[in-house]
What does this fold into?
Amino acid sequence: FGFLLVNEKGYAVLERLVDCYRENIAFVSSYSEMKVAENYFEVITQACSKNNLDFIEKKNLTTFLDHNTAEISGVFTVGWQFLLPQELDQKLEYGIHVFHDSLLPKYRGFAPTPSAIINGEKEIGVTLLRIGKSIDDGPIFGQKKFDLNSDDYVKDAIRKLTCGYIRLIEDFLAMISSEKPIIYTEQDESKATYSIWRDEKDYEISWDRTAEEIRNLIRATGSPYMGACSYLNGQKLRIHKADVQNDIKFEIRNSGKVWKIINENTADVVCGQGILRVTEVFYDISNEKFNFTKIRSRFTNN
It folds into this structure.
């Protein structure tokens, strides 16, 4: 099998494959991600070199697949953000399988885990599916579900989902080893929802929202992503952690104003509803910790 692996989850799958299923690895491919705090490209390439695995650069992948289809049983993708031709799926004995970070058919598309956290979902999951004709609409091999606790940030969610990736690939390879037929379940189109792509604009905090909504955005956009952002005294800052505090009644509510400085790294900020205690704040460029010194400060979007 070919394994197209990106990010922390891709590396974890590779480690498991090397430990227990090395004979199933025909080749590995990866690429360097953009605008992430943690990039696993070098780690994946080094692991391939260390274990004498064939590594195919992304720019050479199409040509390699065209010339080696007969030697490859199937392809699995983890975190891969580029489409593969559907005709390739038909040529391979086991086709192309995709890991998707949601309990399909909900949250098809981009950034499903951040979207689920922002929406305040109580559970998340991962789906292993064969590619279909449109976005994440193919038949499902299996799913793994996990609780999403209110204190879980996106990094915690990724760790949980990674366990699901490993269990699903083990289930799939076990069925092949036992020569059992691969059974799929078609998706219910009436229950399909979609998650749209996210960019830097989506990291911006709107302080007119509730403290809980803002905290969910902060939970969803921390490491390995860049972090929710706002401006204070002309400085662009990234907020990585926060907690909701009991609200008080303001005669005139000015969202974004600092209400109280707890210590140099922690302050309470007025929201559209509720108060948010920000506890880990960093400068955008230098990534150095920001220190609160002036109570007469206001968070803005520019």
In short: The radius of gyration is 22 Å. The chain has a mean pLDDT of 95.
